[in-house]
Amino acid sequence: MASRESSGPDDLPSPPAKAQSISIHPTTDGLQCVRDSIDEALRDADYDRTNAFAVRVALEEALCNAARHGCSPEDPNCTIEVVYHVTPEDVYLRITDNGPGFDPTAIPDPTLDENLESATGRGLLLMRAYMNSVQYSPSGNCVVMTRKVP
Amino acid sequence: MASPDSRLRIQHQNGVTMVEFVDRNILDEANIAQIGSEISALIESDLNPRLLISFASVEHLSSAALGALININNQIKEKDGQLRLSDINEQIIEVFRITRLDRLFHIFPSTAEAMESFS
Known about the structure:
The structure holds two protein chains of two kinds. Chain A is of the alpha+beta class. Chain A contains three helices and five strands; from the N terminus they run βααββαββ. Helices cover 40% and strands 24% of the residues of chain B. The interface between A and B is medium-sized, with 25 and 23 residues.
């Protein structure tokens, strides 16, 4: 794990100047390390339960997508990078994996009656429901999400 | 009887299998797979499964956990069984509403109300 100041790719919203970054191998421990870091940032910014829950949901789904559609955990070079910035007013999250990426437009609407009994395909819906903006890079392996605290 | 490393607390009452989760957060994919396998085994062992899953201890779950619940629901339907969910906190209920899964599952405020609903 490493923390540093970061800048974003040109095609997605750049992170704020004081954003922090964590790079992990997509293991149970690695993913928990990201959750713990974001939880700490949410506590430091005095997020209430509702707002903290919203950020955690979006983070979890983005991490899950990165771990599922990214590179194989057996690959020693496989990493997920999470850039984050949490203030009392807003949240910026950027999750990048070094896998082949996925096409978010190919996910069928999971709320349609014919898809309700499908076991997958709800992550993006939840990310969009709980964040103000969700943008994927054209390559599909980087997502930037922002939320303003209401 | 659940094994010592089970992710579930299991009770049997009036022909209903009542399941509670050990974990507050149902996020880890390996844990979700284990939960799915344990509940699947409970369903398989019952000719007419009547299953109540309580979320009383759960603070957070992911869409992967919702997927496991859908698989459980499908398995129970195949056996003409009944599934009820109860004690879901306000924030997680909102996740069910957003995904419209509140239309798929029979959800009750309490285990007592869920127990009464079994036919």
